[in-house]
Amino acid sequence: MLGGGLLWLALELLVRWWVQRPLPRDFYGSIGRDPVRVHQDRVGVHAVAGDGWLHLGWIADPERERYRVERRPAQAKGSEVWQKAGDSRTGSFLTRETGVFDYRVWAVPRGAGEPRRVGEVRAEAGPGPAPPLCAPRIAGPWQALFRPEVYGSYINDHCIYRDGEGRWRLIGITGKGRGNFDAERYFAVGVSDDMPPAVGEMLEEAPVADFGELAWAPCVLQEGAADRAGWHLFWSPHRLHQMQSEDGIRWNDHRVTMEAPRHRFFRDPMVLQVAPGQWLLYTTARGRYYSRVDVYQSFDLRHWQYIRAALRTARGSERNSPFASTESPSVVEQRGRFYLALTYNNDSFFWPGILMLFKMWRDRASYNDTLVLHADNPYDFGCYRGRRRTPNLVARLEAHAAEFVHHPERDDWHITTAGWPW
After folding, report:
1. What is the 3-class SS of the chain, one letter each residue?
2. What is the mean pLDDT for each group of 10 consecutive residues in the chain (422 residues)?
3. Could you tell me the pTM of the whole model?
4. Do the beta carbons of residue 234 and residue 271 sit within 8 Å?
5. What would you measure as the largest C-alpha separation in the chain, in angstroms?
6. Which of left, alpha, beta for 301 (phi over 0: left; psi -120 to 50: alpha)?
């Protein structure tokens, strides 16, 4: 028994060492260390607020600085003393005080030198009532939406959006055959006039993002009003790719926006606009042992920095794979409350990853397991400690890589599921 236990432990440690070893990481994301001060001066300090919460964001330089946040009532006279509101290591400060305040952020050198003011902003967090809680439920039978035949055989992680002509588009991971994650190197495209199609399935068009390397988990963001909109396509894994489009149909300007993200196992990016000129990027991630969902911040959709864990997991969480179990994060806002959906699979030990190489998934039900957690703000969804010990867990849905799709003309919602055929 002892020998078997030692062998199991050795295999576990070997797999964890192997999957972590080749992946570079860096806090600075898509901002180099040398020009970080230029970006910091350009951006200053931005605020986002909701009922009962407020967030301050800025560009950070954590190797050389720490940050002190001060505030005073907005109606205070110039002679009134500023009070310390807190400290931060990254360019993020989340507080739960209400009222109108002036805030200022100071960069405090880690070595010698005087503090320097990063910026100042006036912001208000309203004392309004708690947003209503909505619990998503699958309310009808599944309907086939899109099945590629020419350029692939299946759809896995995907996104659905409307293009500049008003048509609905699905872009998703694909490949030929039964599903080989190492051969998924472009995205299949499905198109329809309505969502879901009134008759049949979405029609297949030519694939996108074929650059000879892995292409996983696309996310399309529409920016601006319909008459002057632009579209941005993001994908992973291990680094952040990006393209842009004037109509959501034809894509150009491919670039690697983030070469070395903050944490290993960066994949499945999803972008949410939280205010004019402010965006958040949610990704799969893992700490020393426990899985998590990370969030990065940008003020121009080109330069991203890690700011915090949007969701942590801890003792009591059922799955913590060596390559992370909190996959395909997606955040939607509904009536002032935010909902984080994630696919919760990949068991906690080494053998599921080995079985996956042979297209074997031992626990089929765990592959189609979506957790939905709620919060009053988009920055902090708390800590998942298991199904019975997580108060803000609002739903479990039998779906994989789920997307919530809103049809504005009918004001109805749809949920999608996808995945490997095996």
Report:
1. CHHHHHHHHHHHHHHHHHHHCCCCCCCCCCCCCCCHHHHHHHHCCEEEEEECEEEEECCCCCCCEEEEEEEEECCCCCCCCCEEEEEECCCEEEECCCEEEEEEEEEEECCCCCCEEEEEEEEEEECCCCCCCCCCCCCCCCCCCCCCCCCCCCCCCEEEEECCCCCEEEEEECCCCCCCHHHCCCEEEEEECCCCCCCCCCEEEEEECCCCCCCEEEEEEEECCHHHCEEEEEEECCCEEEEEECCCCCCEEEEEEECCCCCCCCEEEEEEEEECCEEEEEEEEECCCCEEEEEEEECCCCCEEEEEEEEEECCCCCCCCCCCCEEEEEEEEECCEEEEEEEECCCCCCHHHHHHHCCCCCCHHHHCCEEEEEECCCCCCCEECCCCCCCCEEEEECCCCCEEEEECCCCEEEEECCCCCC
2. 75 79 84 92 96 96 96 78 95 93 96 94 87 92 96 98 97 95 96 95 98 97 76 96 97 95 93 97 93 97 96 96 94 95 91 82 89 97 97 97 96 96 88
3. 0.95
4. yes
5. 74
6. left
